[in-house]
Amino acid sequence: MKRVRFGVRVVALAAVVLVGVGACALDPSADVTGAAAPAPVAETERASGASAPPTPARTTGSPSAAPSRTATPKPSRTTSPAAPAKPSPSGFTGCPQGEHQRAVETYLARLGGFGKVTVDGKQSAADCAAIKKFQRRYGISPAAGRAGATTYDVAQRLAGTEVSRCRAGKGLTFCVDLTRQTVWAMRGGNVVMGPTVTRTGMAGYATPAGSYSVGGRNLKEWSNPYEVWLPYWQQFNGGIGFHETTTYLHEKSIGSHGCVNLLHADAVRLWELGSIGTRVVVFGRRPGT
Question: Where along the chain is the active site annotated (predicted)?
Fold first, then answer.
């Protein structure tokens, strides 16, 4: 008779009852602690090969061969250094220049608030600092000052947002432009929170346009269908609401299940402004939905 070497492991499932009205969530596999998950690196913002893992060096000869006792090791001082990064046309090498340099300079100059930029398509120390500041503000990773595709996309959307298109009332109104994927707040015709980036419902879960009002708020809402925490939750249409995202906001291959996802600082600011009854105006249509 064969001896049984391994026992059968029985895993007991603990039933946890959590009550929540949030019907949407960004990522069902996200950490349910409520803490924001680490933001993955945006491939489109990398300089070529800049963030690639190092390739293991190949060894020559047999790996099992014993080293010669008489050979004197030579220092590796004669090894040729890696070729320096190609400088920008202006000669500035402080940070890499991206393929959208001039366009990003144009949008940042229009937006203002990020420092002096020169619209000439050439990277400079001032341009680099301004682009880095912009990237940090809107959660673009890595914030290396390179004017890549994601930086270009975000800057274009923000610079193209027309706050007057939101039919805000006299009181506080949260505005959502689905077409440009931006959010802002107005009161009495004045902007009290400037446009920022968002990501709304993906294909099959498109966030519906219309006029609504905030009907429920919770600092940390639990979504029953998707089993994920929704920080700074403000519900305005059934199971749809504003909340902080727990994944990289600029990953366009995914989206919410109808909710309006926000960066941490923006979710906090909207929470501070809002209350039960705050008007919400959603207009436009997210591309691809």
Answer: 243, 259
